[in-house]
Structure formats: structure tokens, C-alpha cells
Amino acid sequence: MKFFIPFFGFMFLISCSGNGELKSLDIDEKSIDQYVKEKLDTSQTYDILTGMRFSKGDNYAYSAVRFSQHDTAILYTELIEDTSGTTYRNLFFKDKLPVYVEEDIILSDGVTTTYIQRKVYLNGAIILKAYERSAADKDSLAEKQFEEITMTMGQFDFERAEQSVTQQGDYEMKFGEFLILDLMSYLVLDNEESGYSVALYLIEGDDLINTLYANPDGYQGQVIRCYHQFMYISGIQQMVYTGGEIIP
Fold first, then answer.
1. Helix locations, 16-118, DSSP H
2. How confident is the model at residue 22 (pLDDT cuts 50, 70, 90)?
3. What is the pLDDT of residues 166-211, one digit of tens each?
4. Cβ(100)–Cβ(32) under 8 Å?
5. Can you spell out the DSSP letters for 89-154?
């Protein structure tokens, strides 16, 4: 896999027809590999939007990063952590359609660990080919050959990453409470319907924090859009609040 961050010959686009035909690209594996190589080249520049780390309960977390050019998403990176292990996923788009997925998966049951790599080629509407290799350790994985497997479009959610980085849908956050742990203060936001929540470390207040703190009951359940950055504080990575706004 090329990278993860915490990163055609002739093509034409088939338009959606009146019968609901899905858009697709006239591409193949070779042209997709060339496109991905081009987009991973160090000469490429991107506008980067880093989403928050969303938790669901004590054993599940999701985060994503969007890489865009000319206001169009080219790549999303996803990090999924749960009780079974960790998944790193890159989703490449061309002309707003998914064309390539690569995954690094580490599965662990506390006794054994399995490393899995996948690469999936798409034309935007269907999966063209999917490959996988696995091993009990990283060194052995690199020596394995990829074997063709069967995967379906339903195994991927290509809208999820965009929703998370823009705090929409399941990732629309509402004011919950202020939490103090070991003299550290957090702004807690959540979405009761999806079960996701975030806790943003507060270094200093601002107008929004002061407004919420003055009337927490009155703003309970109010949609809040927050800005953040990840920082290491006392050796621990914190998701630090840098600003926000109340969404009417």
C-alpha cells in the first residue's frame, strides 16, 4: 500500500439514464494503477480536510481525511478501530466515482494476529476485480502473492467518509455536556440516532464555549459544528477544540 495518514488511456463518462443506470467509467486495472500512481506522486498538491475521531461506545472509533483538488475529492483515508482489530483504508475517486480501494487490516483476538491486504478495482458502478493476501506477520505478508477474491459494492460505503469530514448525517454532532477528567476539560458532542460521539479537549474558551457553558440546559441537543486539531499533550494525543459554531 502506498500510504496512509493517522494517506487513462481514453475515458468517458456514461451519463445516468432515465432508467436509473449508474454512472461508470470506461477503465481497466492498468489505467487505474496508472491513475493511482499519478495521484500519489509527490508533485501532487491537495487541499486536506481532517475529520474528527468519532467513537461509538468504548470499543469502536472511526476517522477519515479528505484530499481534494479543485474542490473535487480524489482520495479519502479511513481509520476504523474496533474489538477485532484495525482497518486502514484508502478510497480513490475519479470524476467523483470510486475507482480503487486498498485496505490494510490487522485482526487480533488477543492470541493470534492476522495481517490482510486487499486491493479492489472499480469502474464507479461495479467491482472489476478484487485481490487479497494474508499472513501471520508483516514480513511474511510482503512475500505472499495476491489472489483474486469476490467482493460486492455493498461491502463499501462510499459516502461515509465525506459525511464524517463535513459532520453530516450520522456524524452531525449535538451539544451534550462539559466533562472534567483529572483537571482536563472536554466538550462532549453526540448523535443519539447513530450512537457516535466526540470529546474535544479544551485549552481555552471562546464565545461559543462561554455561551454553551452559561446555559447548558438551553443548548442541550443543539447542532454544533466544531473545528479541531490533533495534538500530543503530556504524551497523549488529544483532539483539541479550536473553534465552532451553532447550526440553526
1. 29-40
2. confident
3. 999 999 999 999 999 988 999 999 999 999 999 999 999 999 999 9
4. yes
5. EEEEEETTEEEEEEEEEEEE-SS-EEEEEEEEEE-SSSEEEEEEEEESSHHHHHHSPPEEE---GG
**Which residues have CB under 8 Å from 215's CB, separation 6+?**
none
Q: Cell 457516535 identifies what position? A: 196
Nearest Cα to Cα of residue 84 among 58, 116, 108, 49: 108
Q: Of 114, 64, 109, 120, which is closest to residue 88 (Cα–Cα)?
A: 64
Q: Using the 8-state DSSP alphabet, how is residue 10 labeled?
A: S
Q: Which residues on neighbouring strands pair with residue 85, listed in sequence order? A: 82, 107
Q: Which three cell numbers stand for residue 45?
A: 498538491
How much is the average pLDDT of 106-116? 95
Q: Which triple of cell numbers denotes residue 107?
A: 485482526
DSSP for 214-235 reads H-TTTTTT-BEEEEEEEEEETT
CA dihedral 44, 157, 19, 71 (to 10 degrees): -30
Residue given cell 495534538 in the structure block: 231
Q: Per residue in 24-40, pLDDT tens?
A: 999 999 999 999 999 99
Q: What is the DSSP letter of 9?
A: -
Query: From CA 228, how far away is CA 208, in angstroms rounded?
Result: 14
Full-model pTM: 0.89
